[in-house]
Design brief:
two-stranded antiparallel sheet; alpha+beta
Length: 76
């Protein structure tokens, strides 16, 4: 069974355990897998998910650099 890209994510850590390459999460509750013995994930989809995650992290870092990340500031 081929898993559609909308059911996969790449996470930087799982239960507090980081991974340099990330953890592949497959949302199987959204997929009917009765009788399935093999799952196939297109690695191009995984690369796109990883790229999106990295871009989002870069945007967050840029935001913090531009507007200053203030620890313990309540905004008042």
């Amino acid at each position: 069974m081929q898993i559609p890209a909308r059911f996969i994510r790449v996470n930087p850590s799982y239960r507090g355990t980081p991974s340099q390459e990330g953890w592949l999460e497959i949302d199987i509750k959204a997929v009917d897998i009765e009788g399935v013995s093999k799952l196939y994930v297109n690695l191009d989809d995984v690369a796109r998910m990883r790229k999106k995650r990295d871009e989002a992290a870069s945007l967050l870092d840029a935001w913090d650099a531009a507007f200053g990340k203030k620890e313990g500031n309540s905004g008042t």
